[in-house]
Amino acid sequence: MKKVFLPLSALIALSLTGSAQSAKIFAITGDVKGNVNWNAFREINSVDGSLKSTIYSPSVKQTISYQSSLNRNATPRLEPAVSAVAAAAYDAKNNRLYYTNMRGNTLNYVDLNENNLTVVSNEDAVFNTGDKFKSEANIITRMSFGADGAGYALTNDAEHLIRFTTDSRPVVTDLGRLIDGANNGSNSIHNSITSWGGDMVGDAFGNLYLVNMHSNVYKVNTQTLVADYVGTIKGLPEGFTTNGAAVNQDGDLVISSAVYTQSYFKVDISTLQVTSPVKTESGVYNASDLASANLLYQSKVLPTEVVGKESVTIYPNPAVGKTFQVKISNGTSDKYSVTVTDAKGRTIVGNNAYGNQLLKVDLPKGTSTGVYVLKVINCSKQTVCTQKLVVE
C-alpha cells in the first residue's frame, strides 16, 4: 500500500502540494509606517509582522523592468502603484504577486523570480467594472487565489466577482453579482457600511472568505455565488479597521489595518475570536492588503490510502446541489464500484464506474449536509481508495 496525496477535488489539486504551507506573507503599505498612500510592496514576517524585505517603494531608487502582454519591453510612464493598491494576491506556483491599481483596469504582477524589480502588465486582462473615479463601488479592493489555482477579485459593492488565470494571456471572467445568503438580513454583502473594503482568502474546499473593513466575515461559494454572513471578528481594539487578510503557515487568519500600526492580529476562523497579536516592539506597517498562498483548512486535508496505480478525482468537493463527478484514471476501462456511506456506515448511494470515464453521482434528495465517505472498489473486490466527501 502506498500513500499519495489525493485531491479533495479538481480545485484543490491545482493549488496544494503535499498540503505544504508557505511562510510568505506580503503586504501593501505606504512608503513609511502610518502613510496611507498604498504604493509599496513588502514581504513581512508571518510570526511577528516585522519587515523581511521591501520589494518596491517609491522612495527607493531601483531599476524597474516593465513588461507588457502587448509590448514585451514597455516604457513606463507611471509608477507601478500609481493610483494606490488595495487588492493583491500571491501566486506561489509562479512566485508572482498579482495586483490591480484602485483606479485602474489592468491586471498586473510583480515577478518575484527576477533579481531586479520586474512588473508585468496584462492590458488584455481587463477589470472593467465601471468608472472607478466616479464611484468607489466599482473599485476592486479584495483579491485572493482560490483552491482551483485561479485568482479572484471583488469590487466594493460585490456586483462583480472576477476570476482570472495566470497564463501568459490571462483569461478574465466576470462571474457576476454575489447573492445574499438567506440569513444575511441587514448584513447584506452589497451594503456599503457592513460589507465594503477589506480582503479575501480562499479555503481548501473551494470557497472564499471575505473580511470587510468593519470586520464582518462572509463565506462565498464560488459555484453558486451565494455569500453567507458568518459573523463579526471579536476582540479587536477600538479604531481597528480590517483591510488586509492572509492565512499563515499554521492555518491562522492574519488581519491588518490601514490605520492601526501597533500590530496585526491572528484570528480563529471557526470562532471569529482574536487569539493573539502579531507584532514587534516597534509595531508594524499599516497595510491596505495582505497576501499569502495558504488556504484556510488546508491542514485538514489529509493524505488518502490508495492501492495500485489508480488516480481518483472528485469534483466538486464539497458537493454543491448534492451532485458530484468521479473519474478513475488507470489507463484501462476496468469496472469499479463507487459507494457513499454516512457517519454510521450506511450506504446512501452506489454506482458502477469504468476506468477513464466520468461518472456523475446524484445523491438522494434527502441527503443531509455533512461529511460522508466515498469508497472505490475494483473488480477484484480490493479497495482502491477511501475519501471524505463534504456535502453542502
Describe this structure in words.
This protein is mostly beta strands and 392 residues long. It folds into 2 domains: 20-299, Hemopexin-like domain (Hemopexin, 4 Propeller), CATH 2.110.10.10; 302-391, Sandwich (Immunoglobulin-like). Helix content is 1%, strand content 46%. It contains 1 helix and 31 strands. The chain has a 5-stranded mixed beta sheet with strand order 5-9-8-7-6, with no helix packed on it. A 5-stranded mixed beta sheet has the order 14-18-17-16-15, with no helix packed on it. Strand 7 (96-101) and strand 8 form a beta hairpin. The longest helix is centred in the N-terminal third of the chain and has 4 residues, at 10-13. Residues 1-19 and 301-305 have low confidence and may be disordered.
Q: What is the topology?
A:
Elements: E1 2-4, H1 10-13, E2 24-29, E3 40-45, E4 51-56, E5 64-68, E6 85-91, E7 96-101, E8 106-111, E9 117-126, E10 140-145, E11 151-155, E12 161-164, E13 172-176, E14 179-180, E15 199-202, E16 207-211, E17 216-221, E18 226-232, E19 244-247, E20 253-256, E21 264-268, E22 273-278, E23 287-291, E24 304-306, E25 311-320, E26 323-329, E27 335-341, E28 347-354, E29 358-362, E30 370-377, E31 383-391
Parallel strand pairs: 5-9, 14-18
Antiparallel strand pairs: 1-24, 2-3, 2-23, 3-4, 6-7, 7-8, 8-9, 10-11, 11-12, 12-13, 15-16, 16-17, 17-18, 19-20, 20-21, 21-22, 25-26, 26-29, 27-28, 27-30, 30-31
Strand content: over 45%
In the CATH hierarchy, the architecture of the largest domain is 4 Propeller
- Taken together, the total number of domains comes to 2
How many strand segments? 31
CATH superfamily of the largest domain: Hemopexin-like domain
Largest sheet: 5 strands, mixed
What is the molecular shape? globular
Separation, N- and C-terminal Cα atoms: 32 Å
Give the overall average pLDDT. Answer: 86
Low-pLDDT residue spans: 1-19, 301-305
- Total helical elements: 1
- Computed structural class: mainly beta
Strand order of the largest sheet: 5-9-8-7-6
Summarize the amount of helix as a percent range.
under 10%
The CATH topology of the largest domain comes to Hemopexin
Radius of gyration: 22 Å
Q: Under the CATH scheme, which class of the largest domain? A: Mainly Beta
